[in-house]
C-alpha cells in the first residue's frame, strides 16, 4: 500500500533539520506558507486564514495532541519554498508545493492534501478558451513552478515573475498571452477580476500538492503522514472543501481534487 502511494507521489527521501523530538522540546514549529493566496492562505487584516492555514492548525493538533506547540507561520515566496527547507528556515512547507521529480531530490513530501492541473489566465477581451489560441505565444509564469516547466518543455517563450500578483499585473498591462499556474490559482484571479478569464483549466497530468520537509526527517514525515490519514478519516478534507473551497470557486473546482478518495481509500 505504501509503495503504491509513494509511486503516486514520485517518491520521498532523506536528511533533516528539526526532528519531531526537537520541535516538542522547543515548543514551537515553523511552517512556511504564502500570505496572499486566497482561499489557501491569506492575510485578513492581520489574521492568517484559508485552507492551508486550517490544514496546518489541524495537522499540528494531530501531531502533538495535548502538548502546547506554538505555530510560527513564516511567509515564503514561491521560489524560496524548497530553499527555506534546505537552509533550515522552516520545519514544514504547506504552500501549494507540487510534488515533482526534481523536488524529491531536494526535499521529502508527505501524502498529498489536494491535487491540481495547469490552468491559463487570460484577458477577458482576448476570448481565450482553447490551447491552440495561445500556441507558442509568450506565457507568463512564476519562476520555479510546474506551469513554467510544462510550457518551457512545450517550446513556449516564457517570461517569469517573482510571484503570481506580478504575473497578473504584467498580463493586464499587455505582456504575454496568458499567465499559467495551478488551475486553483488562475480560477481565483478570474473570480476576483472582471477583466480576466480562465477557461483553460485542465492542462497536463494531475499533480499532487503535499507537505514538504527537509530530506531524511523520517520521524516527522511518518508522523505527518499518520496525521493526514487521521484527518481524512475524520472528514477534514471534505469539510474544508465545503467550507473554504467550494464557496470561493462557485463549483468550478471538482471536489475529487480535495477529498482525494483515490489516495486515502488505500488506508
TrEMBL record:
<dbReference type="GO" id="GO:0005576">
    <property type="term" value="C:extracellular region"/>
</dbReference>
<keyword id="KW-0732">Signal</keyword>
<protein>
    <submittedName>
        <fullName>ABC transporter, substrate-binding protein, family 3</fullName>
    </submittedName>
</protein>
<feature type="domain" description="Solute-binding protein family 3/N-terminal">
    <location>
        <begin position="28"/>
        <end position="252"/>
    </location>
</feature>
<dbReference type="InterPro" id="IPR051455">
    <property type="entry name" value="Bact_solute-bind_prot3"/>
</dbReference>
<dbReference type="InterPro" id="IPR001638">
    <property type="entry name" value="Solute-binding_3/MltF_N"/>
</dbReference>
<comment type="similarity">
    <text>Belongs to the bacterial solute-binding protein 3 family.</text>
</comment>
<dbReference type="Pfam" id="PF00497">
    <property type="entry name" value="SBP_bac_3"/>
</dbReference>
<feature type="signal peptide">
    <location>
        <begin position="1"/>
        <end position="21"/>
    </location>
</feature>
<dbReference type="GO" id="GO:0030288">
    <property type="term" value="C:outer membrane-bounded periplasmic space"/>
</dbReference>
<dbReference type="GO" id="GO:0006865">
    <property type="term" value="P:amino acid transport"/>
</dbReference>
<keyword id="KW-0813">Transport</keyword>
<dbReference type="InterPro" id="IPR018313">
    <property type="entry name" value="SBP_3_CS"/>
</dbReference>
